[in-house]
């Protein structure tokens, strides 16, 4: 595979690379990971889940507990990276930046890194180099940034396609932002930057892509689906962030278990 890293790396790529590998030094109150058998053991004993139970969640309760929740989640996370996955237009970049700020994390976006390193827009890369080359560069970027403690990482919509990418994603907590096709269509109406949607029938294409990828997206640790709330209007970035934080809290505090991750 040819490397996308030609010449000096931008400083925001270099700094995360200096971060030591995540895992072995971590203590019992956070996450420990055994990369060989893909077992992810989470020690979860810090919280009463009932307080933040998914089903009983409501926004007024969230408002009063919000500050404490962000602090608690930060402590429990102990800088564990958070990878956002999902279809193009699901809001990974938009929500990811907001989430990072709230958790006192930094933010990276694999699409932006590829564009920055290649000095080309994604649409130009697809056109001039082809999708396969883009996927190679995407994997290379992911492997370079994978030890990023304290980062929220918005990934490209197709990152889930390669099995080898999952070995990197598994270094953190993987969150699937699941947004309906109609919402994506509304958001990306007239968008010209997503090369896979430039054909005659973008809605049909989105449906095809989603049904092919859904089993892969569902490998995430946390699945957040807008329809769970039967709401028709869009969630704001702030609401998404509160929701993700609440689901992270649940993930990190549920009774101690050993969970198989495929
Ligand atoms: N919660 C939201 N409410 C309304 N619009 C949103 C929301 N989140 C994102 N958007 C809009 O949807 C579009 C796509 O969002 P964004 O680029 O964050 O998606 P993405 O998942 O990172 O997409 P890609 O994988 O293609 O990079 C943007 O125009 C953004 O402003
Ligand atoms: O879903 C996809 O395959 C893509 C999503 C975007 O994030 C970009 O990575 C690119 O447009 C391809």
Automatic annotation (TrEMBL):
PROSITE patterns for this protein: SHIKIMATE_KINASE
Enzyme class, spelled out: transferase
CDD domains: SK
EC number in record: 2.7.1.71
Keywords: Amino-acid biosynthesis, Aromatic amino acid biosynthesis, ATP-binding, Kinase, Nucleotide-binding, Transferase
Gene Ontology CC: one annotated term: cytosol
Molecular-function annotations in GO: ATP binding; shikimate kinase activity
Entry's Gene Ontology BP terms: amino acid biosynthetic process; aromatic amino acid family biosynthetic process
Catalytic activity: shikimate + ATP = 3-phosphoshikimate + ADP + H(+)
Cross-referenced InterPro entries: P-loop_NTPase, Shikimate/glucono_kinase, Shikimate_kinase/TSH1, Shikimate_kinase_CS
Pathway: Metabolic intermediate biosynthesis; chorismate biosynthesis; chorismate from D-erythrose 4-phosphate and phosphoenolpyruvate: step 5/7
UniProt key word Hydrolase: no
Family note: Belongs to the shikimate kinase family.
Descriptive protein name: shikimate kinase
Species of origin: Galdieria yellowstonensis
